[in-house]
Specification:
The chain is of the alpha+beta class. Helix content is 39%, strand content 23%.
Length: 251
Amino acid sequence: MPMAVAARKRYRVLQPPQSSPSDAVQNRLLLALPPEERTRLLALLEPVALSHRQVLHDAGEPIAHVYFIEEGVVSVLVPLEGGQEIEVGLLDRQGLVGLSVALGAETSTTQALVQIPGRALRMTAGKLRAELGRQGALLPVLLRAMTQLHVQVAQTAACNARHNLGERLARWLLMLHDRISGDDIPITHELIATLLGVRRSGVTVAVSTLEKAGAIAHDRGTITVLDRRRLEGAACECYEAVRRELADPRG
C-alpha cells in the first residue's frame, strides 16, 4: 500500500489567543474568547460523549442544548419528503451545534447527526441566550461561525447542482479528512449515498474510480486517503472555496 501523503492543507478558522499549557479546551470558538469570558463559560458547560449516529437535535424540534465540539464530526442534515435526508454541512471543533440559537431560534430546521464519534462541551440553550445577553465577545464569534457555516451550505447546494458524483465525493472526503486525525475515514457506501443524496451503486463506481487513481483505498467500511494531492485533483473547486472561507483570518 502506498505511503499516505504527510503534507496536508489543514484549514484553520480561528487564530486563538495564547493559552496556558493547562488549558485543555479544543473548540476553536471557545479559544477565540478572552480568557475571563472563556473561564466563565466553561463553568456552565458539561463534557459529554458523542456516539456514532447520535442525534443531537432534530428538525422541527426545540433546541434544548448546544454543543461546542471538542472532537469528532457532526453532519448537518436537511429532511426531505419520504424520509430522505441530505447533508448540507459538516461541523467539528471549529464549530457549535445549535448555532441558530444565537439568531434567536428556538427550534431547529435541520438535524444534527454525529458522523464521527468524539466529545463535546454542552450547555442548555437558555444558558447560552443568557450569556449572549451580556453582550461580550461570544456573539461576534458565533456570528462569524454562522457565516462560515452559511458559506459551506451555499457551496454544497451549488456543488450538488453542478458537479458530478466523483467530484462531489472527492470534495466530501477531503472535508472529512480535514476534520479527523489520521487517514482512515470510517464510512460505508450506504451512508455516503444517504448523506450525498445519491444511489449506492453510484457511490461504488465513484469510490472505485478514486481507488484506481491511487487517491484512496477502501476496505470494510473504511476509506483510507492514500494520496492527498490526487484526491484534491479529483475534487471540484467547491472544496477550495470552502477551505478558503474557513481559513479566513477575520475569524
